[in-house]
Amino acid sequence: MRLKIVLLLCLAVSLALAAVDWPKFQKDLNNTGLTSDYGPLNPAVNWTRTYSSTFLGRNSPVVAGGIVYSGGPSAVFEALNATTGALIWQRTDFGVLDCTPAVAYGMVFVGDGNGVVHAINATTGAEVWNYTTGNTFTIRSSPAVSDGIVYIGAPDYKLHAINATNGVSIWNYTTGGAVHSSPVVYNGVVYFDSADDNFYAVNATSGLLLWSYAYAGSSLTASPTIWNDTVYITDNTYLYALNASNGVQLWNITLGAWTTSSAVWNGVLYIGDSSGVFHALYADNGTEIWSYTTGDLIESAPAVANGVVYFGSADDNLYALNASTGALIWKYQAAYDVSASPAVSGGMVYFTADTHLYAIGEDLTPPNVTQVYPTVATLGQATNFTVNATDNVGVSNCTFYWDGSPIGTMNSSGGGTYYYVYTPQSSGAHTAWANCSDPAGNWAYNSTTVTVSTPQSGTVVVTSAPGYSLEVLLALLGAAVVVVLLLRK
After folding, report:
1. CATH assignment of 2-362, given 3.40.225.10, 3.40.50.2300, 3.40.190.10, 2.130.10.10?
2. Eight-class DSSP state of 412
């Protein structure tokens, strides 16, 4: 048991050291939602944080340098230890937050509920600079930071390019509607859409328009994804694939009434829709590979890690599916709708659900098993041996052992109590123990020394009587005694 604990601690440390940052919405500048890290396969809640009022659902957490940055209700913006959830710093002066922050150059960049973009020292929480957009409405666009420039959309109909060091405007591009989507930066071009039902590609350095594409339907707040020189965008009807260089449409397909932002891995595009169906499509032609139906609409953009795709649903669950087959690996029921997008880092997945921020990691905790009871028994008499076993996820089974040999699976009587009825076959000191495991395969045991005594002189011991209950045997024994007494008369 001691060796197992040491191994678990070593594994936990190695996960922390190997953590890959998830520093912005959909992980990288191409919004692929793909990481080289991995998430949990046997989930357990490492920690949660609960707030007094509701999240708006779009402000997904990000992880960088072992710190989780998350905006919350009542203008709360926090930095938390990624392993323990301990508060590092907190700000409450930014207005209602409705976008995902980005971490770069030792700063955290985020738009607030008053049309202001902030740069915050990532370590201390002190504000470095702020930038005021053209109105005081809530910023929903999550920033992208590249080559010293912060790119972020705003309700003032503009995409803004801001100097990341000092907050000075470099350029802005005006569209015909609010810019809520989160931009992509690729090969010196910034891609984004606008509520004017157009998608734009502008030069990242000058802000000059390179091309635009008019949606067939109405634009949404879903953000673009780029893979293999192709940009993937959605409106309220179609999913489009456009040539990233010139905006020429390669293909389009119809999914649900509207769709989420997408993730891409190994030539496959992953996307959810408002009918509650999650899709895996070939990225080069849009052909469906598999689909998975949840219990409600999907607003959460997916994350892909080590062959597993993670996403949330309004049915209150976070899902983990096999990215190749669509088979369910696990799902975790949160307290509320999971509409924000998950972040995967250090073997953990972080996500928000209304008033809660969750950190789900690999279950490394073995069950807690109490001493086996009783410690005395009588030779040849059936004895009910019991143990209490609890686990952070749940106990799968307990096995009863006698003198080192497995005897059988213990039964559950509820409340964490497990029992096994065993009849000792020899007197003296014996060892009884219970070995209990959880769904992740973690196990623990506890044992006790059982003193088995021989029956007192004159005691009748029934060791076996197939087909008869104890009550019947006692009745027969009583009848026999009566007969003997009558015969003596």
Report:
1. 2.130.10.10
2. E
**What is the side-by-side strand order in the sheet with 268-272?**
263-265, 268-272, 277-282, 288-293
Which two tokens mark 274?
């408002």
> Domain 368-475 carries which CATH code?
2.60.40.10
Which phi and psi (to 5°) does residue 487 adopt?
-65, -35
Please list, in sequence order, all residues whose beta carbon lies within 8 angstroms of the beta carbon of residue 473, skipping any fewer than 6 positions away. Answer: 462, 465
The type of residue at 219 is S
Joined tokens for residue 357? 């921020």
Condensed to tens digits (0 to 9), the pLDDT of residues 128-187 reads: 999 999 998 989 999 999 999 999 999 999 999 999 999 999 999 999 999 999 999 999
Q: Listing from the earlier edge strand, what are the strands of the sheet with 67-71?
A: 62-64, 67-71, 77-81, 87-91
Q: Say what the pTM is.
A: 0.84
* Backbone φ and ψ of 323, nearest 5°: -70, -20
The per-residue DSSP string of 179-241 comes to: --SPPEEETTEEEEEETTTEEEEEETTT--EEEEEE-SS-B-SPPPEEETTEEEEEBSSEEEE
Q: How far apart are the C-alpha atoms of 83 and 200, rounded to whole Å?
A: 39
Average pLDDT score, the chain: 89
DSSP SS3 for 33: coil
Name the burial class of residue 233, with classes exposed (0-12), middle (13-18) and buried (19+) by CB atoms within 10 angstroms of its CB. buried
3-state class (DSSP) for residue 402: strand
- Cβ-contact 201, 208 below 8 angstroms: no
Please name every residue paired with 240 in a beta bridge, in sequence order, or none if there are none: 233, 252
In 3D space, the residue among 92, 62, 262 whose CA is nearest the CA of residue 181 turns out to be 262
Q: How far apart are CA 273 and CA 293, in angstroms?
A: 10
Beta bridge partners of 373: 386
Tell me the three state secondary structure of residue 2.
helix
pLDDT value at 481 more than 80: no
3-state secondary structure 417-441: EEEEEECCCCCEEEEEEEEEECCCC
User: Is residue 473 pLDDT above 50, yes or no?
Assistant: no
Domain ranges (residues) in the chain: 2-362, 368-475
Handedness of CA 208, 213, 218, 219 (dihedral sign): negative
Please tell me whether residue 464 adopts helix, strand or coil conformation: coil
